[in-house]
# Entry
Amino acid sequence: MTTTYGTAPDAEVPGDREDDDLDQSLRNIEQAVRTAQRAFDEIGRCNRLLDHAQESGDETIRELDVLLRGREHAAVPALLDRLDALAAEVARSEADRTVVRRVLFGEDDNDEPADTHGTWTVPRLTADDLPRIPTVHDVEDPGDSTLEDMWERDQALASRQHEARRERNRIAADHLRTVSARAVDSFGTPSATAALLAETRQAYALWASCVR
# Structure
């Protein structure tokens, strides 16, 4: 039995309920802060990985340039494999970044960064774009000629063929270098990187055919 001024033994005290609500709110805020901190830490990790990958990629491009100048075609595929591995690591990290940004800022899959795939054009080059190597059919035959004339025509043709092959090699090497460097620069946009790296394989095959 209670008096007018008393309370039942199991009745809630309003002050206690307010304290519980406040404690819960503080715990929720603390949890939200920890979640946000972990998210920002993850973004920091992604940034560091991207920076490291681009530094490694730049070093790979410098190595590639040496091989191109030395016409060492057999060693190039290993460098392209290295770029593929770096790009794959970045792609996984950027997928993590997308999830984290969705948690922090409510961005969804349809939200595209300013630097989208369309920004990264993929230059193309085929054998048809290279200078043609002249043949004997391109040499005018004046008819009667001496052996010396024939020898001079052969020498002139050989010189033109040499220049054409050198120019083909230069153009193909420049294309491979350009596409590879652009792929490294695009690491933060994995869809663009994939398209550029696919072109590096085509570019390598074309360049290798010029130097073999």
Observations:
- Residues 14-70 form the longest helix (57 residues).
- The chain is about 70% helix and 0% strand.
- Helices lie at 14-70, 76-105, 147-185, 190-211.
